[in-house]
Amino acid sequence: MRLALIRHGQTDWNLNGLMQGRTDIPLNDTGRAQAEAAAALLDAAEWDVVVSSTLGRARETAELLARRLGLPVAGAYDDLVEQDFGAAEGTLVAEIDARWPGRAFPRKEADEHVGPRGIRALERIADEHAGARVLAVAHGTLIRHVLAEMSGHDARHYPRLDNLSVSEVRRTDAAWQVVTVGGRSFAEVREALDAAADLVRLAG
């Protein structure tokens, strides 16, 4: 199965540097324009359906992509929603580390739960859209954790994903593999991931 994980378009909270998480902030006009521009770079002939997380910014991004590409919107999945950042949501990202050292936010969804949750969503999508080539609109932190779960790396070492960036994965013989990360080949990104892991091991 071929599947592309796409980060939703910009919201006002993204623009203003606020931690967003599960808070259901809509796209702004820039986010809508980003979706239109991204659709123009995708080949409709290479994809069959568009799905998304259940949060509004992802659903609207999916609808804009689908309309431009002439593809159906084929579902929204709770397990694709962004990590819940608890008490930190709505806080300036620049102030997060000072307020909560180690990013131990009250009521935060545990980091180790995010990747497996995202994989469950992909498995459900694969079951419900067997053989289809799927565009799945989700969220930056969720996508990084999913990719890390597949590759065995630390999600914190994955690069930040821009709005409407595309990360492709595939499933063969019941195993998921990372193909690209934000438009870059996984082979290229893996060098930096492995180097970061080596530094952690040496420091330990």
UniProtKB/TrEMBL annotation:
Q: Which UniProt keywords apply?
A: Hydrolase
Superkingdom field: Bacteria
What EC identifiers does the entry list? 3.1.3.-
Q: List the GO molecular function terms.
A: hydrolase activity
Q: Where are the transmembrane segments?
A: none
Q: Pfam families per the record?
A: His_Phos_1
* InterPro entries recorded: His_Pase_superF_clade-1, His_PPase_superfam, PG/BPGM_mutase_AS, PGM_Phosphatase
Q: What class of enzyme is it?
A: hydrolase
**Name of this protein:** Histidine phosphatase family protein
- Organism, as annotated: Agromyces indicus
